[in-house]
Amino acid sequence: MLEDTFDKVSSVDKSALLDQIAAEIVKNNVCPDLASSATQLVFGDGNSNADIVFVGEAPGKNEDLQGKPFVGAAGKFLDEMLDSVRLHREDVYITNIVKYRPPNNRDPLPEEKAEFLPYLHRQLEIIEPKVVITLGRHSLEAFIPNRRISEIHGQPKRVRGQVILPLYHPAAALYNSGLKETLLKDFSQIPSLLIQLN
What we know:
Elements: H1 2-27, H2 32-37, E1 45-46, E2 52-56, H3 61-66, H4 73-84, E3 93-96, H5 110-127, E4 131-135, H6 137-143, H7 149-152, E5 157-159, E6 162-167, H8 170-174, H9 177-187, H10 190-197
Parallel strand pairs: 2-3, 2-4, 4-6
Antiparallel strand pairs: 1-3, 5-6
Helix pairs in contact: 1-5
């Protein structure tokens, strides 16, 4: 019973700490050009005590409007994949490297990713997930530079003490049925990976 109380307190504390980081991004005027063209900051969403954190590249149009990551078509597919391994959004935490939508959904620039990366690392330090699942090549590069996603997707790697599972981006799989099957197969190993890490 005591443990439950501690869990609740730490979860509340973690949420407050994450809110502080989001406020700092605005206060520090990170990537002002991106901020001025975006509707709002899209910081992250989900369980601040999660065992799994998904990291995408940057918000798209729907995310920019709603202020939550992965709420468009790619987000619906992510929800389906979570469902396939008996997980829900409230069980995981979802974020992106870049927290503002790039104009016209262009790829985030290297300097934009570099500016946001320290904030992402702090998010992960607070949440302390067992596994970080990178979605797409931009996210992969942030954790495992100079590796191609086609070579290492679905292969858990330990990087500086953190387990990273690189996956294809759900958006890429929406237009490529072969990739969709690959992504679903890679996704299916998440429960057994969590058991190994417990």
